[in-house]
Amino acid sequence: MPSQSQEDSAARPARRSESKGKTKPVEVLNEPTIRLHIWLETGDGVFFGAGRAFLLEKIEEHGSLRKAAEDLGMSYRAAWGKIRKTEKVLGVKLIAQCRSKKEGHNLTEEGRMLKEKYLLWFQEIEREALRKAAEIFPWPVRGYKEKGGDKFLRQ
User: Fold this and answer.
1) What residue segments make up the domains of the chain, in order of their start?
2) pLDDT tens-digit profile of 74-115?
3) Which one of 82, 104, 126, 133 is CB 3.0 to 4.6 Å from 64, fit for a cystine?
4) Least confident range of 19-28, 54-63, 133-142
């Protein structure tokens, strides 16, 4: 019966040649893609993550919370609730209504800054994750944006 360490090593791809200690290339059928899910939360749950960053991006694009919600396939009520929860946790407004209801919403400076800082944080973490993956795994790994992922993350 094989030992636990023999079973573990049998399940992993071989990384080093037995004779020379050099790394052997390991073939994979499809190049793996790193996917990261990072968010900020309090004891009450998530208050900011990629979904809310997307929502702020769409509000900025459309100038409307309702159109942003529709574009993301969510209800106006759900979108408004997410914005309000983040505003409550941070104590700042993320969006402001334009002069009239027909003109919609704009991001506040705080909303724009939060979206941009989240994207920067995400990109830095992804860069480090890719660097570590190249160091650890015997096959190439690419980032979501390299695979042709969401243009929002390619900024």
Assistant:
1) 40-154
2) 999 999 999 999 999 999 999 999 877 677 999 999 999 999
3) 104
4) 19-28
* Tokens 């990384």 sit on residue: 15
In DSSP terms, 83 is beta-bridged to: none
Report which secondary-structure segment, H or E, holds 22.
none
pLDDT of residue 103: 73
Q: How far apart are CA 111 and CA 85, in angstroms?
A: 13
Class for the domain spanning 40-154: mainly alpha
What's the confidence (pLDDT) of residue 19? 45
Q: Which residues 6+ apart lie within 8 Å of 50 measured at CB?
A: 37, 38, 39, 118, 122
Q: Which residue has the tokens 């400076």?
A: 109
Strands 142-143 and 33-34: parallel
Average pLDDT estimate for 62-84: 96
Name the β-bridge partners of 45: 42
This prediction's pTM: 0.73
Tokens 């979501």 locate to: 144
From residue 25, alpha-carbon distances to 4, 16, 64, 83 in Å are 25, 9, 51, 47
